[in-house]
Amino acid sequence: MMDPTVAELVERWDALHKEGRFSALNVRDYWRIKVPEIYSPSPNCNCLRILFDEEQAQKMLFDPLERFMCAGDPTQVYQMVKQLDNPPSLCGRVFKNGDPTYGCRDCGMDPTCVLCADCFKNSAHSKHRYKISTSSGGGYCDCGDREAWKTDVFCDIHVKGQMVQQSKNPLEKIPPDMVERIHLIFDCILAYAKELLTYEEGFSIPKDLEIRESDREPTNLSSLYDIKDTYVTMLYNDETHTYDQVIGTLEKAISCSQKDAVAFATSIDREGRCIVKCSNFQNCSQTKSTMEKQTSRGGVKPLKVQVMETYIIAHQIFASRLLVWLHNILESAQTFRLIFSDIINKDGGTIVESIIWTDTKMWKTARVQWHRLFISGMLMDQESKKMFARTFTKHYSKMMKDFILDDHDHSVSVASLGVQLFTMPTIAHMLVAEEDVLARLLNTFLSECDKKLKDNKLALEHRSSNTSSFRRIQYILYDLKYLLGVKPEVWTDDLRKGFLHGYSLLLRLLSMMQSMDPMVRQVGTHMEYEPEWESAFNLHIKLASVIPLVTEWAASDRIVLLKAYRMLMKSLGELGNEASRRRYVRELLDYSVSCIEYDVSSAPVSIHLPLSRLVAALTLHLDKYDLNYNSPEFLVKGKPSPEELMEPVLRTQVMIAQVHAGMWRRNGFSLINQIYFYHNVRCRQEMLDRDVMLLQIAATLIDSNEFLVHILNRFNLMNWAREDYEVNYYKSSDEDNMRQTVVLVEEYLQLVMTLVAERYTPGIGQVEEEDRIKKEIIQLLCIEPMPHSLLNKALPEGPNHETGMEKVIDEVADFKKSSGNAKGFFELKPEYYSHYNLFFYHYTREEQSKSEVGQRLRKKGAGEEECCPPPVPPPFTVPFTMIVNILQCDVFLHIIKTVLKRMSEPKTQSVSESQLQKVLHLIGYALHEEERYHHNNDPYFHFTRRAQKINLLSLLGRLVGHRRTTTHKDLLAWTIKKYHAVLNLSSDSAKPSQASEAVLASTSSSDMASASAEKKKRADIAAQRKARIMAKMASMQQNFIKTNETFFKETPSTDQPADVPEPMVMELTDQLPENMIAIGPRQTLMPPQEVTYTCILCHQEDRLCRSDGTRGRPMVLGALIQRSTVLSRNRSHHLDQPETHDTLILPGDLHWGAHTSSCGHAMHANCWQKYFDDVVTKERRRPYRYRPSMSFDVEKSEFLCPLCEALCNTALPLLPGVTWASFGLQDQPPPPTLSLPDWLRGLHTILKYKTVMVNGARPSEEGGHSDDAQMDTSPQPAGMVAGHGTVGGMAAATSVGAGGSAASIPMGGLPGRGRGSTNTGITTFMKAVPGDGGQRVRPPRWSRIAFYKKHKKSGEGKDEEEDSASSNEGEGMWTPPSLPEVASELAAATSSDSAEAFTALFHGPAATSIPDFPSQTLEMMSNFSHSVYMHGLHVNPNLFSRRIPLMVWNSTAYTIHTLEETQRNSNRALLTSLSSRQRDCLAALVKFAAYAPLCVKRKQTIEGVAVRLLSLLLEGGDSTPCVLEWDVFSILVTLTLSLPSIFPSIQGIATGSQQDLHILQVCFLAHIVQLLLTYEDPGTGVDMEVDEGSDKTSEAGDGPWLVSMMAHCRSLASIPQIKVQPQQLLDYVKRNCLSYLRCCGLFFHFLTEVPAPEELQSSVWVPESEFYCLLRYLGLSVNQLRPTFSDPPLLELVNRWCSHDRVGPLVCATDRRDCVRHWTHINQLVSLPHDYSELINTVSQFPCPASSGDDSRTPTMCLVCGKMLCSQSYCCQTEFPEGSRQMVGACTYHAHFCGAGTGIFIRVRECKILLLSGQIKGCFVNPPYLDGYGETDQGLKRGNPLHLDATQYSKLHAMWLSHSIPDTIAHTMESNSSVVATEWQHL
Ligand SMILES: [Zn+2]
Ligand SMILES: [Zn+2]
Ligand SMILES: [Zn+2]
Ligand SMILES: [Zn+2]
Ligand SMILES: [Zn+2]
Ligand SMILES: [Zn+2]
Ligand SMILES: [Zn+2]
Fold first, then answer.
1. Of all helices (H) and strands (E), which one includes residue 652?
2. Which stretches of sequence are listed as region Disordered (predicted)?
3. Calpha distance 1470→1651 (Å, rounded)
4. For residue 822, which of 1849, 1876, 1866 has the smallest C-alpha distance?
5. Would you say 1650 and 1552 are in contact if contact means Cβ atoms under 8 Å apart?
6. What local confidence, expressed as pLDDT, does residue 709 receive?
7. Which of 59, 102, 1767, 1800 could form a disulfide with 120 if both were Cys (CB 3.0 to 4.6 A apart)?
8. Which residues surround ligand 6, an ion (CB under 5 A)?
9. Residue 992, class by beta-carbon neighbours within 10 Å (0-12 exposed, 13-18 middle, 19+ buried)?
10. Nearest Cα residue to 44 out of 279, 228, 212, 205
């Protein structure tokens, strides 16, 4: 509904309009009152959350406009107008930052032509070679723009718009009245917005919008005038102050929290400004001055702060909304755009003009809104675009000058629109011809250069304050490149004029650069400072993309080329001076040459010669128009002679040669860098390549002999060329000089060779562009096979960043994928190896030698001569033919004669092998050339005839067999052979000389026979291996069948395996020790093995510490403990309160655990301690600022393994096996057996007489043996704050020892209930423990003890006390009765035999024989267990925590779980391909866990644990976790390892005894109950598969038993019954309990060291077979499951477990996550879309969760849970840990909860995988997305289409699953020591 006042208003406007009296003033008068009312911020509001009544705004402000404009219902009108150009033929969608954009490399005019995702998906380009990237915002979709695409201009959506017949002018189709109304409104809005958004110092609001005195009057709104008195403090963005400075300032100035300050700063950065205070004038001014003062320290410009009236702000806000509104309207229809551009262009574009002029005065958002408006309003229409382009060009200079002074990014400057205008060829050509745009741009640029002239040369100072302005001005060069992007097809006089005007200014710029940054060779001392060079190269790189375009334009028209060349000659002439004309005469042979006087080794030389290089570029095109250098048209004053022309370039070449000769050593890195870039592929096209070209041009203009003398002279080698050099000159010079001369000669020969042989430039050789690219590729692939990206990077790019590689690559190379590597490589096709040119001028020295080694090896392998003779070069083009004459001229012959002759003389020193090699190559080229001329019947070139003068053949012959020529003997042979071949061409009579024959014979051919033998051998080995595998497979099948006879009888389809011959099975079973049993009475005991380790630090060997403690020093492994959530089956569960968490068992959903890993490298404990202390000291000394980049954190006791650099945070002691004592007892009579029921009865007896003391309920006088009490009496370790006991504790302390009398163990069941006798004689450890004493209280019922502490109030009690405090509170003190007590009770209840057997379990020799560890070992053990506790829980140190042993056992269980899952994940049998690292780690960990009770501070802790766990398992109780919440394997581990020590005074150890088998059975049963309770009907018609017959046969088997068990369990728990076929249920159970059995298998294998059956290490995993194999190994009944659980007491347990209160509700819970259902589920990383662009699309709309509606800049997805985060951004930083004032990024924060501090993420826009760990460490690794060449593209730099690679992704998954992320990070951080430290916690 329309508001009545609005209706009235619109009526009034309508009436005025009809009278023709309506104007903008009417609207503005209304706004004057309404706008402040709606958009004024209210005083003292929360400036971070200023909300306006948008509904009201729409109703009162926008509705009237729309209604008036449309003269009725706006929706109808919009619909109608839209219809007129529906569908549109142009897309024009404006990109936001981060939107994906698609370019087409086949069809795009240039790389700036892009499509939006929608258009792309609907276009033909999706099947072309497209490129994907993400927009930085500001551009728009070019779909439908004919000048952007060569083909496929329209997508399927927009092509429809093209097909609809467009009316000439849509404006004619709508009523003129409406056009007028729209016109009026647009006009009004534009003027208003322009006036209000143009911010300037001292800005005041237009008069007609002011709040006046009259607004006080009662008729007006009372509030309006009040608004006038409210002010805001507005803070503006600048690029001078850092985020942190702004945040700091805000915190002080408006006293807000750090979090709010961050929010303000973020908002300022996004919007460009932000209101930080809203109050009265005084308060606001106060804030302003505080902020200015804060930020102006040290002479810096202060932050821009402004105090403004709120109603002005209101108008500005409204104006900005109006622009958005207008933009949306313009986007919707062409009609609106036409009216809009009409207004804009009205007075020659005054609005555009004023926006351009005031652009830098506005804040970010306002600017961007205007720019978007121009795009949507002006750029969609050809004519408007032209108009806009003209205005833009007119004001270009002013605009750029403003931009330089401004500090905002180019992308938010109006200048950034240049790319939209200049890239359109028609507009560009128009602007060149009519607006003199080139000159305008260059003049603007030159005016900035003029400020930097020094002796008419540009002198760019790196550190000067103007650097940034010079950097900013270089954006002009991009615009220049856009304008010249497409050369004109048709030239007009205006165009020529415009182009040449710009060209003349470009020449001025190049003249300024000619010889800039000159260098003088430093002699004596080193350079004092490194001269600046980077700025010049930066400028060069930008110009290097402009100059080829200029050349192309100039070369496309004869007139332009003529004039351009003349102007160039003139410019060169102007640079010449007197000095450059000085000459002297040099003589060689009969030639006397007038040379330019210059000495490169003492006078300045520059690498920057753009003017000379332009000559080279243009000269190549002269021939096309029948022109040449000497044409009369170019006779201008000062035109350089050919010698003068090449002189600057030649000097550069000589300088580089001298650098190679070591003559410029003292000039430092500046020079080295310049030379590097001179040759580098990014720069060389306009440097090295042009220089070679220019020298080649000069070679055609100068007589060959003179030319060579000129060069020889510049190289300062005139003396060298004299016959008597060695005699008269060389001897006198020092050694340094001699070496230099040798190298200079090499360099000279190389240069000559380059000039005569490099012909792959179109215009110089008879080649096309493609041949040039092919040549580059061939040379590159001769170095080594290369992946696509590397090859592409090594090739020079054209102006559109294309290398042209794809066009030719398939012709010259094959793409090969190596196995196991996703990345493929290009390999040169064999036929192209003959094109290899060892002296290719683009090779670096490394590439040259690498390729030579490679090619020689290849040739050797192929049995060819071991040399790389010169390839046949293509012929020169006509203008360059003269160059070949060099190869037969007298000076050339003289030079080669000189080298060859000196080579053959024994004592000469001025020659080298390299000289010989180069001379032979030169001869080779000459011979190739003669051959070519001969075939063309051209007698001009006749090298062999000319060479007779110097007797070349005999010179060569003399070198054959010479000791100096051995390296190149094959090349020499090749040359002589070739020589004869060429000779034979002309004279048929000649025959190959004897000498050459001899040489040829000496060349060995390859041994073909041996190669084929090798091949056969390999094939044989492969066949053998295959046979072995097949045999193994068969035997395994057979074993499987044999083991499971009953099973196979039940299953109908088992006939075929009978084919396998019987004897083979027998044989195998004999060989393999298949009946290994790890635990129970039938345990297979193996002789204990002595293991020897070598310490990686001192390299001494040592045997493992044994019982007597004398042999071997204690050793440790570096280990890493990490808290983990990797195996979690419920990610909504977190370990929230690690300080108080009860660690008795691992939770059933494994939502947390502590993982232990090790690299398996052993060290002496002493050596390690020393190493670790060193590391710590070194790190502490390191300056703080370098710490964040460390790959390990000493604060968390991290260090790197000294050998392999694996990350560690503790040391795991290496301990001996546990069964050595039992093995020694083998001959003794076996211990009496104890049945499972009797054993259980014994355990129940323990529970019956246990004592539980709960802290709260404990009367103070009973303060017997509290933890705290003993804590106080023990010495406090360093680093631990002393815990103060409670009063009760203190009291207890005094009673210590009261009842503690030393006594020996009462054997034979001494009665007597008074306990408290601590045996001091059993172990040394026990001696240290003070005797305990005190009275007992009756055990409370379970219900009195809160097992799970739901919510403990945190903050109470000091950290260090928490653990013991909580233990007292929650767990209480659990104390067992004594063994004799239990034994006597048991004897009474059953028989004395049972009691004896029970006693023997705990007190037999096997159970209690424990090595006597030296104190150092005990200390290491204690340290390690404490580390597990600390790192595993992330808690503070507390050496006395009772959770320490529990954590060790939990970690053991968790680590085994992890290993089991990783093995299963890669489809491996239990022990298959375990690395020695994994084996060593687990072996050490399990053994340690077995000995863990020895190192606890109080043995009672262990006793308590055992009693509690027994109670949990056997008694249950509703306050305990129910069976479904258990991780039964962790119960097994803890119980197995703690039960032997349950009785006071007895220290026992688990050895795989009968008791362990019983525990295994009980836990197994619990697991089966879990499975049966959570069984779910698969719902498929499986039951159809099971036929009646099989049902009957399995009646007596496990199936029916399980079915009845399930019914029993489910009815007890009140869970609905499920009907299931027995076989089906049996399969289910077997499948699902395998992982439990595998864990048990691992555990007991490493505990007892009983060798595992072969099958567990087989390369083929057959789960079903493994199941039976494990049953046997674990000493269980193999044929049937059922007997394992047949004892009635077990059924009682089942009843107890199932009737637990929570079982039913858990299974039936609505939140399915509450209950584990898939017990064997392996967690996967989130599934990612196959096509990478899909992933980008899905996140392109992802808003930052912290700021309302803004897009996130770095959207990052957690690969573990799939959550999307706004990473690396201030907006989403959180203070963490709370109260620490340390801010962390969203990823770090998320990783803390999701992955317990470790995280794996994908940064979507950059296609990078981010790994994080331990808050301050992280790294990027390769993403799983690969392009067609199997390569990744981190950061989307190449933009090839990317697809998910399953193998790569599964590698990441495996890394995560195996807990290797922290290690990967450490390794990655260690290997790239980048200077800039990433602050990973901010990501
Ligand atoms: Zn589009
Ligand atoms: Zn389209
Ligand atoms: Zn295309
Ligand atoms: Zn050592
Ligand atoms: Zn290591
Ligand atoms: Zn954010
Ligand atoms: Zn997550």
1. helix 642-660
2. 1257-1378
3. 13
4. 1849
5. yes
6. 94
7. 102
8. 1744, 1746, 1766, 1769, 1771-1772
9. middle
10. 279
Distance separating alpha carbons of residues 35 and 314, to the nearest angstrom: 6
Ligand 4 centroid to Cα of residue 1095, in Å, is 5
Q: Which pLDDT band holds residue 826 (cuts at 50, 70, 90)? A: very high
Residue 1579 predicted with pLDDT over 70 = no
pLDDT in tens, 1271-1285: 333 333 333 333 333
- Please name the residue that has the structure tokens 């054209």: 798
- Give the predicted TM-score (pTM) of the model: 0.78
**In angstroms, what is the span from residue 1124 Cα to ligand 5's centroid?**
22
Residues near 1676 by Cβ (< 8 Å), separated by ≥ 6? 1557, 1560, 1561, 1564, 1684
The per-residue pLDDT for 1028 is: 62
Q: Which ligand is nearest to the CA of 1095?
A: 4
Q: How far is the CA of 271 from the centre of ligand 6 (A)?
A: 14
Q: Which residues of 1066-1096 are buried (b: 16+ CB within 10 A; e: fewer)?
A: eebeeeeebebbbbbeebbbeebeebebebb
Among the bound ligands, the one closest to the CA of 1166: 4
- Name the closest ligand to CA 99: 1
Q: Which ligand is located closest to the Cα atom of residue 114?
A: 1
CA of 1766 to the centre of ligand 6 (A): 5
| Residue 801 CB-half CA count within 13 A | 14
Mean of the per-residue pLDDT values for the chain? Answer: 82
Highest average pLDDT, of 180-189, 725-734, 1397-1406, comes from 180-189
Q: How far away, in angstroms, is 544 Cα from ligand 1 center?
A: 33
Classify 397 as helix, strand or coil. helix
DSSP 978-1010: HHHHHHHHH-TT----HHHHHHHHHSPPP-HHH
pLDDT digits (tens, 9 = 90+) for 1416-1448: 889 999 999 999 999 999 888 888 888 999 999
Q: Which listed ligand is nearest to 157 at the C-alpha?
A: 2
Question: How far does residue 1279's CA lie from ligand 4's centre (Å)?
Answer: 26
Ligand 1 centroid, distance to 141 Cα (angstroms): 5
Residues 448-467 have pLDDT tens digits of: 888 888 888 888 776 555 56
Can you give the pLDDT at residue 579? 66
Query: Is the separation of the CB atoms in 1457 and 1639 below 8 Å?
Result: yes
Tell me the pLDDT tens digit for each residue of 1186-1235.
Answer: 555 577 888 888 999 988 888 999 999 998 888 776 776 767 777 788 88
Q: Which helix (H) or strand (E) holds 541?
A: helix 534-544
- Per DSSP, the residues of 1513-1574 read III--TTSPPGGGB-HHHHHHHHHHHGGG-STT------S-HHHHHHHHHHHHHHHHHHHHT
Among all bound ligands, the one having the nearest atom to the CA of 1796 is 7
Cα(154) to ligand 2 centroid in Å equals 6
- Give me the mean pLDDT over the 177-199 stretch: 89
Tokens of 1822: 């390769």
Question: According to the model, what pLDDT value does residue 1012 have?
Answer: 54
Report residue 1217 as tokens. 């096996």
For residue 1208, which ligand has an atom nearest its CA? 5
Tens digits of per-residue pLDDT, 1072-1096?
A: 445 788 888 888 877 766 778 889 9
Confidence of residue 513 (pLDDT cuts 50, 70, 90): very high
The single-letter DSSP state of residue 1200 is: E
- Rg over CA atoms, the chain: 44
Q: Could you give the 3-state DSSP secondary structure of residue 811?
A: helix
* Cα 198–Cα 201–Cα 203 angle in degrees, nearest 5: 60
According to the 3-state scheme, what is the secondary structure of 1353-1421? Answer: CCCCCCHHHHHHHHHHHHHCEEECCCHHHHHHHHHHHCCHHHHHHHHHHHHCHHHHCCCCCCHHHHHHH
Tell me whether residue 1244 is exposed, middle or buried, using C-beta atoms within 10 angstroms of its C-beta: 0 to 12, 13 to 18, 19 or more: middle
End-to-end CA, the chain: 49
- Compute, in angstroms, the gap from residue 87 CA to the centroid of ligand 1: 13
Read off the pLDDT of each residue in 528-548 and give the average, rounded to a whole number.
87
